[in-house]
Amino acid sequence: MLLAPSEVEAGWIRTLNPSVRTEGGARRPRKSAGVVRRAEKEVNRLHALGTHLLLELRDCNPKTLGSLEFVQETLKNAALEAKATIVEVAFHEFSPFGISGMVVIAESHLAIHTWPEYGYAAVDVFTCGDLIDPRVAAKFLIEKFQCKNPSIIEMKRGILGHEKLPHKPMVQGELVSA
Amino acid sequence: MLLAPSEVEAGWIRTLNPSVRTEGGARRPRKSAGVVRRAEKEVNRLHALGTHLLLELRDCNPKTLGSLEFVQETLKNAALEAKATIVEVAFHEFSPFGISGMVVIAESHLAIHTWPEYGYAAVDVFTCGDLIDPRVAAKFLIEKFQCKNPSIIEMKRGILGHEKLPHKPMVQGELVSA
User: Fold this and answer.
1) Which of A64, A107, B107, B158 has the fewest CB atoms within 10 Å, i.e. is most exposed?
2) B108, B109, B147, B167: which one is catalytic?
3) Which of B135, B134, B120, B124 is closest to A109 using CA atoms?
4) In what order do the strands lie in the sheet with B6-8?
5) Burial class (CB in 10 A: 0-12, 13-18, 19+), A24
6) How far is it, in rounded angstroms, from Cα A163 to Cα A159?
7) CA A114 → CA A30, A34, B111, B123, B174, distances in Å?
8) How many helices (H) and strands (E) does chain B have?
9) Do the beta carbons of residue A65 and residue A146 sit within 8 Å?
10) What would the DSSP string read from start to end of B18-29?
11) Residue B11, by phi and psi: left (phi above 0), alpha (psi -120 to 50) or beta?
12) Closest Cα of chain B to A131: distance in Å?
């Protein structure tokens, strides 16, 4: 799944493309794979506060992107699928078409902007802590919008030092231990 | 300002670091500058639907990050500074500290998550169309949170083809021409 990692100023970026086949593993030269492994090791050592997935959902079913109710329920359900705790929801429908919305979760947020006329949606899934997996939400959204050409960039947010920082996910209003 | 551009699967990324001095312009070899110019030209030709700035705000004044009222007003004012039209606002304060919030604008969204205990905030400024400049909002936020160590990644979202796509910014509920 790991295609083109590169370290930049504000964190760590890698590209996950669900449409790319990874069977065989022969597409990446040995040397490059070694560089990737070392870089991944370094990233794991750095400990970021959050993981931010940026989804480019191309070739979706336009009908799914044009319904305010469907988009809102789908984003909320994606959060719940990932075991996130929803704390705020805000959506807006534009004229003649297009929906923008956000679901604030105890573990950060999900955001969506749809262009039904292009079958495209820009989606962000930003989570903190180790308790929930943003990829579960991403996979759910790709399926529900019937997206035939998705791509994902994963970024680490809040790389503040080399020590492991505690996070503070909330469950039903209570602080739970990291 | 352009430091380390690299094209990846889902769009175009470049790193803007306000703390890096660019006077003299002697830090980048000629060849690299040429590559950057060609890449920028190609990006301009591609026409993305949106521009997404990912701000890593380190070494902020913790007091500014811990006040729900201040964070909310600052994010709203950042949107207004950039001439955006606010359509939805949702904020949440966590116990013992930390604020998450989102401002949905007609031109996409602003989002913030603060960790006052680390003097850190993760901020997103996502705008569509050519009428507003997300960097104005980014500069405003860096100033208001008294951030001494900011960095910014700029990503293009919705690169769907080589043709220029119309955007549909809304002003006071009306569709304006692109």
Assistant:
1) A64
2) B108
3) B124
4) B6-8, B11-16, B149-159, B48-58, B120-128, B108-115, B99-105, B86-93
5) exposed
6) 10
7) 40, 38, 17, 21, 18
8) 4, 10
9) no
10) TTS--TT--SS-
11) left
12) 17
Q: Which residue has the tokens 């090791």?
A: A41
pLDDT: is A26 or B161 the higher one?
B161
Query: Is B165 an interface residue toward A (CB < 8 Å)?
Result: yes
In tens, the pLDDT along A114-153 reads: 999 999 999 999 999 888 999 999 999 999 999 999 999 9
Rounded to two decimals, what is the model's pTM?
0.77
Give the integer Cα–Cα distance in Å for A165 and A137: 24
Comparing CA positions, the residue from B157, B2, B55 lying closest to residue A10 is B55
Q: Is A36 exposed, middle or buried (0-12, 13-18, 19+ CB in 10 A)?
A: middle
Q: Identify which of A9, A102, A122 has the shortest CB distance to residue B151.
A: A9
Contact B141, B103 (CB under 8 A): no
Question: B104, A102: Cβ pair inside 8 Å?
Answer: yes
More confident: A21 or B49: B49
> Going by C-beta distance under 8 Å and a sequence separation of 6 or more, which residues neighbour residue A7?
A13, A39, A43
Question: For residues B13 and B91, is the Cβ–Cβ distance under 8 A?
Answer: no
Q: Is A113 a catalytic residue?
A: yes
ipTM over 0.90: no
